Each structure stands twice: as C-alpha cells, then as structure tokens.
Amino acid sequence: MKLLRSEIRSFTGRLRQDSCDRYLSLNIAGSSRKGRVFSSPLVGEAR
Fold first, then answer.
1. Domains contained in the chain, number
2. I need a surface site. Which of 21, 25, 37, 47 has the fewest CB within 10 A?
3. Which residue, 6, 38, 8, 9, is CA-closest to 24?
C-alpha cells in the first residue's frame, strides 16, 4: 500500500510539472504576442 501511494504521488507530481511547463510555454507565447505577462498561481508555483 505504501509503494502504491508513493507511485501515485510521483505520477501526480510528474503530471503537475508537465501541466505547469505546458501552461508556462503557452503563457510565454501569449505574452510575447500580446506584449504582457499574465500572473497566475501556477507561474508562481513553477518558480
């Protein structure tokens, strides 16, 4: 059970990091197009 829990935690962590990276890349693309950076809790968390 402990192993399963750690596996789930690592999977969700990887998933969250992936979504953070995707959001950041989208954010950077949008900001370069519009000329401004959007502030978001995800961006603060990724830093």
1. 1
2. 47
3. 38
